[in-house]
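Handout, page 2. Input:
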Amino acid sequence: MLNKVLLPSFIVLLLIKIAALNFTTFNLFGDEAQYWLWSKDIEFGYFSKPPFLSWIIKVYTEILGSSFVSLKLLPSFVYLLIAWGIYNLLINSGLNKKDSLAGSLVFLFIPAVSFSSFIISTDLFLLLFWTLSLNELIKINSEQGLKNFILLGVFLGLGFLSKYAAIYFIICLFILIMLDKSFRKIFMDNLFGFSLTFLSVIIIILPNIVWNFNNGWITLQHTSDNANFANIEIDFVRGLEFLLIQVLMLGPFIVLGGLFGYNKWSYIQKIFLIFSVPIILIVLVEAIIVRANANWAAPALISLFSLMYIRINNSFLKIANFLFNFTVCFVLFVMIGMSYPSKIFDRISGINDYALKIYNNSSNSAVKNIVVSDRLLFSSLNFELRDKDINFYMPHKEGDKITNHFKIVSPLNKTINENFTLIGSPSDINYLENEYKLLKINSPDQKFTKRKLDVYEVVFE
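Output:
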């Protein structure tokens, strides 16, 4: 009975989301605007992330445009592909087509998907290629054809080009080889096939490796800064919060049903455990000793969801899971459509109004150049004023540490002599060689950030 309402319910929620996107006054997150801006300058790598998402945004916007609604629908299209991957994953795990189709639809309702379907992120394609890679790995258990090994490498390579967290797949694979005798035999009997897998990965990520080499390995520098192990501060409450968020993102009822389901543990279920628990533990440790964002363990949710869905066999918990997840999704999209004034939406509130006030001020003073010291605001202003004739620059003194991609591609030249609007601090531009005057002007409201930036007119003498 529940299976019959899954597809109509998904269609209803999709229509509600589309309506919400058309009615909301919310704006893109700064990171989303950054990925869009990167797509205007196609590279084999960027400061903090690999390039695949920006490549896709480039193709996508060429076809469907760069409007807010169009961009916000991109995650939904990708999640349909991920759901298709989940369907095949469940089929390859031994479920029949009916239950596998239901599982792929149930996946689209979990809170993690509801929230992230509203956000353009590198996790989208990591999850897609992670699912496809896991499918090929399970196929290799029964069919060791060269095609399977090459496809595993291709999908895994594309996963790395999506997000470097794909390294978790390699870690889990080696744990599987060490812990499972039967898979270890498959590995040893097919060294040539797995060599093709790793060769395929290297070939696909090689352009990104070359880009990093040519740019001083700045992505590794950024990853190291993110880890921030120099500021260790043990906090077990932070770890507990991380675990609770993971449960909520899957849906508490499916987790409860999966943990206490009376199905026997199959070989495939053990693989799902190995491709989820180590990731959760790694990020949990990081959450306890430093910090960790909830999405850092995102790949684990694919295996965990598949595991819990296979094991849940309580009809009441299945219905409760659907009702809980549907309600979360429904409430979220309604709040977005109403532009609900909640702190959770502050980061995407008022950015367009801020950008227009900055532009109008610049236009009135005949200034066509805007210099922004903050990475996210730099990206957001570029997106919101994309139809205006404005040049954007990032303050950067040659030789100083590079902290974002725009200091590479849009640095403010020290010899500039054209007037501009500065959003930041006067100290950001103290390396300029030509004489200039600063006029502080009223800064528009900046509800979307905790870091309030001053606004100045910079006039050269």
